[in-house]
Every structure is written in structure tokens, then in C-alpha cells.
Task: inverse folding
């Protein structure tokens, strides 16, 4: 602030004319350095998908108490409250287990040199890095060779251990992947925006499309999980009731066919018992059939529907690096630095000329 206060435009212009050659040399060197930096940074492309989830108010399923009591099962209803609301979708997408699944997505490059390659392999072997980062990584590997570690992933069937223990290499890879993927939710409209940045435009598009599908599948499985468990239970009860009804029907038919001409009360009582037993099992079967259809409808009702507002599109223009911005930024900083340097140099020169020793 002191410098800016003491120096006016006329003084600045005078300094520039006095050190014009210095400024030009600094600008040329800075421009060369800035362009080298700009051309060393790999180009990146961004693809985006926008989804709009439907709003739903799901009532409680319930209505299974009497049937569950008859069959010896305790069955609860489904609530309409979701623990994972649209504002939490970004956290779901950034979770380690979701990201580990993203690494298995098969990608292809726009130039056709890579086809159906796991994204993890593409990320580790085919992505370019800035020369300074690549050099630093090479030096670190030479000084401190990486230890061979094995990652532990959660069981896919959900029955085994859900522990995640990543090696240092996979941990860095996951960190890099998180920096390439962004998800946000508009709090007013609940519109979900998913963006993926990659060095290849087709890879970015494939990734954002696959991630949006996986996110929809995850939310669908979450919202319908309880209903699907209840549906499976009712389906088992329905199949069991149908088998028992068929068995009772067969027993009654066989008894009735073989005892048509007998008039003993003992046989009449047994025939009536078999008929009542068959009718009872038919009633249970009918109730379960109705409940099965109702639960299937509830599963469909719980299944969310997403409207694609903006589909994944292969970008034709890169978003980075912005070479002109880099050039202008470096020129501004170098000009300011050069100005400060020549100002102090000129002031010291003046002080030396006006000092008593100089006289």
C-alpha cells in the first residue's frame, strides 16, 4: 500500500521508459514460461448429466398382521420416510464402495485406441501427467520404492465382511477419482447434476452416463429394499399356501371318488372335514394372492422414476488448460514483480545520488 500511495501513473510511466528493456525481457521470458506450462498441462473435457427425481409420498404397506399371524410370521409395514434424500446423493456418490465400483466401468477412447478397458487400468496406465508431477513421482519411486500392498474390498453378495482396506496406491487412485467427479443437488428443484472430467471426451461421457445409471440403481435398491423383502416373504407364503391347497384338493378329490356309494357317517364326516380343510386352505391362498398383487404394486410405487433433463453428450471443446488465462496471469504477476524491483532499484539509485557521500 505504501508503494501504491507513493507512486502515481506518471512515475510508473517514467520507470517503464527507464527500464523498458528490462520489462520486455521479463515479458518474453514470462510468456515463454507460461506457454510451456500451458502446453504441459493435459487437456481435460467435462461431460454432464442432469436428472430430476419424482417427488413421492409413500404410505405404509402394513396389512399383513392377520396373515402373518396365521403363518407364524411377524411382518412390519413400509414407512414413507427416506433416510437418503436428494441432498445426500453427492455423499452417496463420493462413498468409497460406490467409487470402487466406478473403477470397474469399461471405457473407450475417442480415437479408438482403447476399447472396453476398465477405468482403473486406463487411469493408471494411459492418463498423462504434467512433466513436473511425473518427474517428482519418478524421483519419489526411486528414493522410496512403493511397498506391495493388497487392498481388501467388501463382499459383493453382502454376506461376507464389508471392511474396506485400500493400499496406498489404490487410496491415491480413489482420491484422484473423487477429484474428477462432482455431484450437486439443487435444494429448490432437487435436480441432480453429475459432472465428470477426464482427458478423453468419450471416456468422460461414458463415465458420467454409467455413474448416473449406478446412482439411480443404488437409490432404487435402497428405496425398494424393504418392500422387496416383504414381497419375497409373501411370495414364499403364497407358494406354500398354493402347494397346501393343491394337496388338500387332491386328497378331497381322491376320497370323494373312492367313496361315492358309501353311506356310513364316518365317511361323511371325513369327507366334510377334507372339504372344509380344502376350503380353508383356498381362503388363505386367495388372501395371499390378493396381498401378493398389492405388495407388487407397492414395490412399483416405491420405485423412483428419474427424468433425464440433460443427457450425456460427448464434449467437443476442452475446459482446461486455459492457455490465454495462464499467460495473462503470469504476465500480470511478472509485471507487478518487475515494477516493484525497478522501483526499489530506482529509489536506491536516487538515495545514493543525494547522499552526502556522493557529494
Result:
Amino acid at each position: 500500500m505504501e508503494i501504491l500511495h507513493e507512486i502515481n501513473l506518471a512515475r510508473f510511466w517514467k520507470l517503464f521508459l527507464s527500464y523498458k528493456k528490462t520489462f520486455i525481457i521479463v515479458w518474453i521470458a514470462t510468456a515463454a514460461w507460461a506457454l510451456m506450462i500451458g502446453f504441459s498441462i493435459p487437456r481435460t473435457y467435462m461431460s454432464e448429466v442432469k436428472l430430476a427425481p419424482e417427488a413421492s409420498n409413500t404410505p405404509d404397506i402394513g396389512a399383513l398382521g392377520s396373515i402373518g399371524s396365521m403363518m407364524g410370521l411377524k411382518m412390519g409395514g413400509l414407512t414413507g420416510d427416506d433416510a437418503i434424500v436428494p441432498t445426500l446423493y453427492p455423499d452417496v456418490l463420493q462413498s468409497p464402495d460406490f467409487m470402487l465400483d466406478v473403477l470397474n466401468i469399461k471405457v473407450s477412447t475417442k480415437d479408438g485406441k482403447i476399447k472396453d478397458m476398465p477405468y482403473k487400468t486406463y487411469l493408471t496406465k494411459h492418463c498423462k501427467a504434467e512433466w513436473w508431477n511425473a518427474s517428482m513421482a519418478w524421483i519419489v519411486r526411486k528414493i522410496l520404492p512403493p511397498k506391495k500392498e493388497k487392498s481388501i474390498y467388501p463382499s459383493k453378495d453382502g454376506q461376507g465382511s464389508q471392511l474396506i482396506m485400500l493400499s496406498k496406491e489404490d487410496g491415491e487412485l480413489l482420491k484422484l477419482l473423487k477429484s474428477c467427479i462432482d455431484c450437486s443437488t439443487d435444494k429448490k428443484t432437487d435436480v441432480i447434476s453429475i459432472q465428470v472430467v477426464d482427458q478423453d471426451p468419450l471416456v468422460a461421457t461414458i463415465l458420467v452416463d454409467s455413474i448416473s445409471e449406478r446412482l439411480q440403481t443404488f437409490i432404487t435398491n435402497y428405496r425398494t429394499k424393504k418392500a422387496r423383502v416383504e414381497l419375497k416373504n409373501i411370495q414364499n407364503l403364497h407358494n406354500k399356501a398354493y402347494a397346501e391347497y393343491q394337496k388338500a384338493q387332491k386328497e378331497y378329490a381322491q376320497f370323494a371318488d373312492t367313496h361315492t356309494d358309501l353311506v356310513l357317517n364316518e365317511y361323511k364326516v371325513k369327507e366334510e372335514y377334507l372339504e372344509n380343510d380344502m376350503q380353508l386352505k383356498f381362503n388363505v391362498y386367495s388372501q395371499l394372492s390378493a396381498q401378493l398383487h398389492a405388495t407388487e404394486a407397492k414395490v412399483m410405487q416405491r420405485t423412483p422414476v428419474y427424468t433425464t433433463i440433460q443427457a450425456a453428450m460427448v464434449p467437443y471443446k476442452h475446459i482446461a488448460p486455459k492457455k490465454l488465462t495462464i499467460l495473462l496471469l503470469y504476465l500480470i504477476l511478472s509485471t507487478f514483480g518487475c515494477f516493484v524491483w525497478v522501483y526499489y532499484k530506482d529509489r536506491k539509485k536516487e538515495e545514493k545520488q543525494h547522499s552526502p557521500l556522493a557529494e
